[in-house]
Amino acid sequence: MGDNLSAMKSIWREWEIQKLDSYLQRSALFLAKEFYKGSLVSGLVSTSQTAPLAFFFLFIWLKI
């Protein structure tokens, strides 16, 4: 019984980690796209300031 419980806990933990990874990937990609769009659309902030942020979030997404 104890082995089954520990196996279920490990499966649950793995599922939570995968869910978190998926969430982080979607968040990083969304932020990268928003910063990139913002740098093209709004004239408030220059591209030289927002483009590195977009690439930073894209880098995080690719590393995950």
Automatic annotation (TrEMBL):
It comes from the Eukaryota. Keywords: Membrane, Transmembrane, Transmembrane helix. The chain crosses the membrane at residues 40-62. This is Uncharacterized protein.
